[in-house]
Amino acid sequence: GDHIVETDNAYLKFDKVILSAEVSGEITSLLVRENQKVKQGELLLTVDDATYKVALEKAQARLLKAESFIQSLRASYQTKQAELALAVSNLEFADKEYRRELNLSQKKLTSEALIDDRKHNLDMANEHRIIVEKELAQLLANLNGRADAPITEYSEVMEAQADLDLARINLEHTKIVAPFDGFVSHLPKLGQLIDPGSPILSLVSD
To answer: Which residues are within 8 A (CB) of 85 and not within 5 positions of it... i.e. 6 or more apart?
Structure first.
């Protein structure tokens, strides 16, 4: 016995983590058994992902809708620009007609009724120009002040993209994988309901 050391009060130190849920749902598959050795990245269990797949599809649809909305605003802006150019041209023509009638009136070569008609046309043309300019300004405001910015820089598209990214993350979190090599323990039961932040199982490094 001189060459053998014995003790009943020794321990080994291992890294141990508690894996927690990131999403809520029912455990639909348990791919490991108690004290099984697993490799980093190995799939341990899955959570029901039906709701998260639907959320992802909705987020994708919202992104497409937001992009379509911006494209529609851009098209309306371009159309309104053309309408404004026409309104300005009509205003200039109405102004010329009115001034011509005024010159003729000084020579007693036109009637007051015709002058009034030309003045009415001028006022109408000016009012139309003002309305189109306001509509154009509103469209530009809806485009965040930039009609030619990359579509990904508009707030509606950015918000929809953020929702889509979150939906993808949540769907990915329905798959629980080993963060490092080790042994799994304290496994949950198949069909068990879990909530975000609740512990699922333990992983002890090897």
So the answer is: none
Please give the helix or strand (H or E) that residue 47 lies within, else none: strand 43-47
Task: For residue 162, give Cα distances in angstroms to 41, 66, 111.
Answer: 26, 12, 67
Terminal C-alpha separation, the chain: 32
10 Å CB burial of residue 115 (0-12, 13-18, 19+) is middle
Each residue's pLDDT expressed in tens, for the chain with a length of 206 residues: 578 878 787 776 778 899 999 999 999 999 999 999 999 999 999 999 999 999 999 999 999 999 999 999 999 999 999 999 999 999 999 999 999 998 988 888 888 889 999 999 999 999 999 999 999 999 999 999 999 999 999 999 999 999 999 999 999 999 999 999 999 999 999 999 999 999 999 999 87
Return the structure tokens found at 4: 């053998």
